[in-house]
Amino acid sequence: MLPIFRSQAQAELLTWLYLHPDEKFGLTDLARRVGVSVPTIHREADRLTEARLVVETTLGRNRLLAANLDHPAAEALTRLLEVTFGPRQVIAEEFASVPGADRVLVFGSWAARYSGIPGHSPNDVDVLVVGDGVDRADLYAAADRAQARLGLPVNPVTRTHRQWVDASDRLSAQLHTQPTLDVTVSKAA
């Protein structure tokens, strides 16, 4: 956690709201996603609403929260949350434990947006794992953990080292010409 956030709960609450900008979330749902009590989320929501970083609407008796994308700090805050709590960090952490994963790349719409290419908010995260002998069960277990943390589908694919450098491998050839984000965690010797 960066020391600029008041608490881990606040940072994770902001992450859910700012990295899912087209959605509104109820307090109970946010408490479950962040892993804290509803009263804790309620207090953080009050603080963030007062600071105008979050907007709130009501639907019946439910209080719904969303990112305030009109706030002057919204763009910078979104970028900071992406770097510290978003797909880049989560994918790196979850795929670091996959045996045989020598390189981990995020590609597709999320990598394009991260690289500054305009477009719609990504609906998923595409991940390429390069390595020989990567077990699919380990690959999908890492994807499931990342998906639970991000609230976005995580789609893993794998390529051997030979496939990754083979110009006739369609996916590899395509990815060499598109934005990718290397999130490989170096392994200590």
- Provide the structure class: alpha+beta
Estimate what percentage of residues fall within beta strands: 15-25%
Span of the ends, CA to CA: 26 Å
Question: What is the 3D form?
Answer: elongated
Provide mean pLDDT, rounded. Answer: 90
Main sheet strand line-up: 6-5-4-7
Please tally the β strands and state the result: 7
Number of helices: 9
Spans of 5+ residues with little confidence (pLDDT < 50)?
Answer: none
Helix content: 40-55%
> Largest sheet, described in full?
4 strands, mixed
Structure explained in plain terms:
- The protein has about 190 residues and is α+β, with helices and mostly antiparallel strands.
- The two termini are about 25 Å apart.
- The chain is elongated and about 55 Å long.
- Strand 2 (about 55-60) and strand 3 form a beta hairpin.
- A 4-stranded mixed beta sheet has the order 6-5-4-7. Strands 1-3-2 form a 3-stranded antiparallel beta sheet.
- The mean pLDDT is about 90.
- The chain has helices spanning about 10-20, 25-35, 40-50, 75-85, 85-95, 110-115, 135-150, 160-165, 170-175, and strands at about 25, 55-60, 60-65, 105, 125-130, 155-160, 180.
